[in-house]
Write a structure and sequence with these properties.
Number of helices of chain A: 11
Oligomer: heterodimer
Number of strands of chain A: 0
Order of helices and strands of chain B: HHHHHHH
Distance between the termini of chain B: 30 Å
Shape of chain B: elongated
Strand content of chain A: under 5%
Strand content of chain B: under 5%
CATH architecture of chain B: Up-down Bundle
């Protein structure tokens, strides 16, 4: 049972942190009630994890040939990293934490596939770029449709609010499909869990994270980083969801935060305005660099401690 | 009731409250019109005072409705940007019934009397003001109901505002060229300026509503 604590906790922290990328702006600006956002978010994360989480599981499980001990240690190191960075209020990507932890343990066990690793790293670069491009294209494509309602205030309001709920659900689905592998993928590789059981455990733990602790992060993300109107928020969430979903299809867990930042920049380029507070962006960049390094360090330390033996003279 | 209306009850309630407010706003305008017709035909008599009182009651009712809508806004019934727009829209619209009431109070409290040779001109000034205000009402309803040609209404307001300016200037020139005593001249001028303001205000509010709609355009 103990070995499930670390992935469950990691899933919880993914839910607590990443739901803000989906419903953060809408909840923080009171377009949608938190209870509605959290309920729908948790449900669709679970559906996404069960329906399409397998491809990511395959990637993570093929990335490593860990035994149970290495899987538990890397999972624990990733969970610790997410906790420490969250306490330090540095935005953290669970994908990076997991990969950093896997690399750290891999230094000792050597069970990390170089090809799989380069595929993941390439996708990391592609995530913000994908978010940016989708945001620009969708902003221009869908704008004329919303313009038809621009002079009817309540009708516009209703359609946009409904659109935010729908893309929020899609975003949660994509998050579940993509990120569940981060939470329980190494356990599939270690033959501790079947892909279905891993998806269920991961999806449920992310859902619990959303329901119990995502409100505070949503308020922070929604009010401190982004300056978006409702239409831009809709485009950002949709672009992020499509990007993350595509990577779920490819089977590479990526950071939804990176996709969001890319999408926000895309909207900003089109509107020629500063949609991002650059200080907050710098904070995020520090998190991106620090997360895999700290996770690797934690896993090295944990691995070292777990292998200390008393040798009598 | 459609599926959307079930899920978006609060938004629909706001919409129906605002349309109710616009009904009361129109009633205020009609009562003002009747009061001014009475004033032009018979001076500030008892029937005029009765209509002043009725206009005042409708204006107060419009104020109450506006406040109720504003409280509903704080209950987060609309997107934040829409909330700000509707609050601004109502505050701006509300200045017109206030102005109508003020004009009637000035006539009633200051016992303003008309000089017969200016009655026709003041009648024309009032007619152009009513038409400007009616066009504004159409624009305001257009914020909630589709199939209204807002651009045509904006042009009407623009045209009526120019007409009011011309009538206003001619009237003031005539008044100050007459043998009336100084106090009556100033009193009539103030009344005419206040009536002339109605289309100016309507034009500003129409601009505001147009900007509100453009702001939403992507």
């Amino acid at each position: 049972m103990f070995q499930y604590i670390a992935p469950a906790y990691l899933g919880w922290s993914v839910g607590a942190n990443d739901a803000s990328n989906i419903f953060g702006t809408a909840v923080a600006t009171k377009m949608i009630r938190f209870s509605t956002a959290a309920g729908l978010g948790a449900l669709f994360v679970l559906v996404g994890a069960l329906a399409e989480g397998r491809a990511g599981m395959d990637t993570i499980s093929k990335l490593t040939s860990f035994d149970l001990e290495a899987a538990v240690l890397s999972s624990l190191a990733a969970a610790l990293t997410v906790t420490v960075l969250t306490v330090l209020k540095i935005p953290v990507s669970s994908s990076q934490a997991v990969l950093g932890a896997i690399l750290g343990v891999g230094l000792f066990t050597g069970g990390v596939s170089g090809a799989g690793l380069s595929k993941v790293l390439l996708c990391w670069v592609g995530t913000p770029v994908g978010g940016l491009l989708f945001a620009m294209v969708l902003y221009l494509l869908l704008g004329p449709i919303f313009n038809l309602l621009s002079h009817q205030l309540v009708a516009y309001d209703i359609v946009l609010r409904a659109a935010l709920v729908v893309v929020g659900c899609y975003g949660a689905y994509a998050l579940g499909a993509n990120n569940v592998a981060n939470v329980t993928g190494v356990f599939v590789g270690a033959d501790l869990l079947s892909p279905w059981a891993a998806s269920l455990l991961g999806g449920l733990s992310i859902g619990v994270g959303i329901m119990t602790y995502s409100r505070r992060v949503m308020m922070t993300v929604g009010t401190s980083i982004l300056r978006l109107n409702a239409y831009s928020a809709f485009i950002v969430v949709l672009s992020q969801a499509i990007t993350v979903h595509l990577y779920a299809k490819v089977g590479v867990p990526v950071s939804s935060s990176q996709a969001v930042i890319g999408a926000v920049l895309g909207v900003g380029i089109l509107k020629s305005v500063a949609t991002v507070r650059y200080r907050a962006l710098l904070h995020i960049l520090i998190g991106w660099v620090a997360t895999p390094l700290i996770a690797a360090l934690f896993s090295v330390v944990l691995y070292f401690i777990s292998h200390l033996r008393y040798v009598p003279n | 009731m459609g599926l959307f209306d079930v899920f978006f009850k609060k938004q629909r309630q706001i919409e129906s409250k605002v349309l109710e407010y616009l009904e009361v706003w129109e009633e205020c305008l009609r009562l003002f019109q009747r009061a001014m017709d009475q004033f032009l035909d018979h001076g500030a008599d008892k029937d005029f005072d009765f209509l002043v009182e009725q206009t005042h009651k409708r204006e107060s009712h419009a104020d109450d409705l506006r406040r109720k809508i504003e409280f509903r806004m704080y209950e987060e019934a609309l997107l934040p940007e829409s909330r700000g727009d509707i609050l601004g829209f109502l505050e701006a619209l509300d200045t017109i019934p206030n102005r109508l009431e003020t004009i009637l109070f000035i006539i009633s409290l200051e016992k303003v009397t008309l000089v017969p040779e200016y009655v026709d001109d003041i009648g024309r000034l009032l007619k152009a003001s009513y038409e400007g205000a009616e066009a504004l009402l159409e624009i305001a309803r257009g914020v909630f109901k589709k199939d209204r040609d807002l651009r045509a209404q904006v042009l009407i307001i623009d045209e009526k505002e120019s007409a009011c300016d011309r009538i206003e200037r001619d009237l003031i020139r005539k008044i100050f060229a007459s043998d009336l005593d100084g106090f009556r001249k100033i009193s009539l001028r103030d009344l005419i300026l206040k009536i002339g303001d109605i289309t100016d205000m309507a034009e500003n509010i129409a601009d505001r509503i147009t900007i509100m709609s453009y702001k939403r355009k992507v």
